[in-house]
Amino acid sequence: MEENDFFKVASPVSTSVVESNENEMIALFLAGELTSERFGDAIRATLDLVGTTEELITAADIQNDLQNAARRELLAATRGYGQNLGVFENFPTDVRWVRTILTPSELARVRYIEYSYWNELSNGTRLASDAARQIRRGVEVFGVSNERFLRAARAVERGELFPPLILAGSGRIDWCVWRAIFVSLPTRCRSSPSKSSA
């Protein structure tokens, strides 16, 4: 996994798909969790508990079976992956993982997972654009500050890159955000030149 492997928003006619795998998804998911204000401490505490360092995530070798098993166990322990728990409740076991480039119109159709927080923030639609409107109006859900979205929006304005989105769905049209790593998504969809992320 290259440091600069990012999903990109492409021009309106992009459909390239590159095969990926569960090991890469888990590594990317954990990388997002490690830097998360909400989940990073739990990841670090679990790494300490099992006697390993953040390098398991920050220097992930997805060709190494021992590392892959350790990361899978870490994601299971912290978020219920493979155990039908938490954010992975009812998550399918037979998944085809791919890397792709989303068009702006595809990105605009991405929905948040079916979860009370995202439902409330998006006023029931689960669309990021609707959540952005709510955030701009100052609506806070369940007493949770929107500051992380506002910081992310400022980072987008500065041109910063974010880790890949991890999406799940039955097809290109039906994707939903399974892990909202790219927290600036609610504030806007941005296009950039078409480039392969593989």
Biggest sheet strand order reads: 3-5-4
Number of strands: 5
How far apart the termini lie comes to 9 Å
The low-pLDDT segments are 1-14, 178-198
Describe this structure in words.
38% of the residues lie in helices and 8% in strands. It is mainly alpha-helical. The protein has two domains: 1-19 and 99-198, no CATH class; 21-88, no CATH class. The strands form two sheets. Strands 3-5-4 form a three-stranded mixed beta sheet, with helices on one face. It has a two-stranded antiparallel sheet with strand order 1-2. Helix 1 (22-34) crosses helix 2, helix 1 packs across helix 4 (65-79) and helix 2 packs across helix 4 (65-79). 26% of the residues are buried.
Q: Which helices and strands, and how do they pair?
A:
Layout: E1 17-19, H1 22-34, H2 40-50, H3 55-58, H4 65-79, E2 98-100, H5 104-109, E3 111-112, H6 116-121, H7 128-136, H8 147-157, E4 166-168, E5 176-179
Parallel strand pairs: 3-5
Antiparallel strand pairs: 1-2, 4-5
